[in-house]
Amino acid sequence: MKTHQHSTDAAAAAASAAPGSAAPGSGAGREASITVTTEGLPGWLDPVAHAARTVEPQQLSRFLPPESGAGRQSAVLVLFGEGARGPELLLMERAGSLRSHPGQPSFPGGSLDPGDGDQATTGPLRAALREAEEETGLDPHGVQLFGVLPRLYIPVSSFVVTPVLGWWRSPSPVGVVDPGETARVFTVPVADLTDPANRATAVHPSGHRGPAFLVESALVWGFTAGVIDRILHFAGWECPWDRAKQVPLDWRA
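Given the sequence above, the corresponding structure tokens read:
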């Protein structure tokens, strides 16, 4: 188990040691160095940054990457901003025409490309920013990366996912870039995510159970909800909620 934490720490450490701009995007920007730093973060993000430094992989999920190293390397951007109602998270909703998880809300993200660099160090950081730019139109130069969570595993798709934490220091316009991939891009106030009235347990016909959030006319469940749930818990933001409240999923989910 510890080896997964070590590899994640290595990514953050290697990025932090590299001088240069904080957020390369596409083109020439991707050749620039990339940094992970907590300098200048708003105080309300301190608990999240602390959690990223201290949490163990098994505290986040029982699904961890295979010891063999197998799996499709990918990354997601867990981007915190500040909106009219305070702290918020950026999410997107997958297009309903997709074969895999149609209509499901998720973090921006996707597979690592060869040009992203070393998958054990800065590759996931670049991939998270690149995918967020491609999917939402986000300007990555306005994002400050401040932490990396341990790699997690999605057995159904064999994805090994690195959640990369970002602070939306300089917000830029976002929206649907490719309607064939994304139905909408939206932000969710953290206050809504912590509201017990918006929380439930999602139950899949396969028997899988996990946290869910009913926010912004969407049901957030699966991997994305699991990461949000653990961040809220380890940041000390979680409020007691009714875990007996269930939301059934269908086989298409």
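The longest strand covers residues 72-83. Try to locate this feature in the token string yourself.
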